C-alpha cells in the first residue's frame, strides 16, 4: 500500500516528502531516492539510511513515563509494548522502561513486559489479559500508545478492574482520544503540531538550498497529567 502511495506521489511530481508513521524500508528509500526529491522523517528515524528526522527521544520519554509512576509510589509496574522490532516505538520505549526501573533499584523481570504485534486497541485488550495473568499483583501499566491504553481500560472494565483505583495507567502520544476516555488518560505528550511544522520547514529548506546540510531535530516531550494514575506515595 505504501508503494502505491509513493507511486501516486511520483505521478503528481511532488517537490518534497514528509514520511511518517512507518519504518523506512529499503524499497521505499530507493524509490524516493530515484525521484530525486528531499525527504524528512517525522516521528521516525532510520539507522540504515541518511535521512533527516524530526521526533522526540522515545527512550527518554518512556523513561519519564515510568519514573512518573515510580514517583507516584508504584513499584510493581508493567508495560504493554507494540512490535518490539519497531525502531522508534518498539525497543527504545521498552529500554526506557527498563532503564527507569533499574535506576530506581527495582528489578525488571520478563513477566513485567508484554509485547504485542501492533499498537492498536486490540493489542491493549490482549496485552492486558496476558499481563495480569503473569503479573497479578501489578499496580501500574505503561502502555506504548494511547490506543493500547484504551484497550487496557476496556479489558479492565470487562473484568471489573477499576482504573485508577485498582490499576494505574499511562499512555503515549497524548492523542485527542486520551482526554475522551473514561477516566481521562495521563499520557506522554509529543508536540506533533510543532514537529510537523518543523519537518515542513526542513523540506522547504532542502528544496531551496539543496547543497545545505539540514540537521535532524529532537523535540521535548512532557507528561500530560489527567486522572488515570493513582497516587500511592502517601500510603
Main attributes?
235 residues, alpha/beta, Rossmann fold, 2 domains, six-stranded mixed beta sheet, four-stranded parallel beta sheet, 10 strands, elongated
Which CATH architecture of the largest domain would you pick?
3-Layer(aba) Sandwich
Mean pLDDT score: 95
CATH class categorisation of the largest domain: Alpha Beta
Structural class: alpha/beta
Annotated CATH topology of the largest domain = Rossmann fold
Strand percent estimate: 15-25%
First-residue to last-residue Cα separation: 52 Å
Tell me about the largest β-sheet.
Answer: 6 strands, mixed
SSE pattern: HEHEEHEHEHEHEHEHEE
Task: Indicate the low-confidence ranges by residue numbers.
Answer: none
Count the DSSP helices. Answer: 8
Helix share, percent:
40-55%
Tally of discrete structural domains = 2
Name of the CATH superfamily of the largest domain:
Response regulator
Strands across the major sheet, in which order? 5-4-6-7-8-10
Provide the gyration radius in Å.
Answer: 19 Å
Shape: elongated
How many β-strand stretches? 10
Amino acid at each position: 500500500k505504501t508503494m502505491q502511495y509513493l507511486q501516486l506521489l511520483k505521478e503528481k511530481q511532488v517537490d518534497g516528502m514528509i514520511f511518517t508513521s512507518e519504518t523506512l524500508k529499503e524499497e521505499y528509500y530507493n524509490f524516493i531516492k530515484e525521484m530525486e526529491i528531499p525527504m524528512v522523517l517525522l516521528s521516525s528515524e532510520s539507522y540504515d539510511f541518511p535521512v533527516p528526522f524530526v521526533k522526540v527521544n522515545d527512550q527518554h520519554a518512556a523513561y519519564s513515563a515510568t519514573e512518573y509512576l515510580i514517583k507516584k509510589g508504584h513499584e510493581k509496574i508493567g508495560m504493554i509494548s507494540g512490535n518490539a522490532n519497531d525502531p522508534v516505538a518498539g525497543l527504545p520505549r521498552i529500554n526506557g522502561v527498563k532503564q527507569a526501573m533499574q535506576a530506581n533499584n527495582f528489578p525488571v523481570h520478563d513477566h513485567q513486559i508484554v509485547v504485542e504485534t501492533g499498537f492498536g486497541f486490540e493489542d491493549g485488550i490482549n496485552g492486558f489479559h496476558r499481563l495480569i495473568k503473569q503479573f497479578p499483583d501489578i499496580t501500574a501499566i505503561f502502555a506504548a500508545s494511547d490506543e493500547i491504553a484504551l484497550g487496557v481500560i476496556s479489558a479492565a472494565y470487562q473484568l471489573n478492574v477499576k482504573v485508577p483505583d485498582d490499576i494505574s495507567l499511562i499512555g503515549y502520544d497524548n492523542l485527542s482520544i486520551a482526554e475522551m476516555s473514561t477516566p481521562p488518560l495521563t499520557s506522554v505528550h509529543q508536540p506533533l503540531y510543532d514537529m510537523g511544522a518543523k519537518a515542513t520547514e526542513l523540506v522547504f529548506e532542502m528544496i531551496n538550498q539543496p547543497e545545505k546540510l539540514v540537521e535532524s531535530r529532537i523535540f521535548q516531550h512532557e507528561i500530560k497529567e489527567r486522572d488515570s494514575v493513582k497516587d500511592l506515595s502517601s500510603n
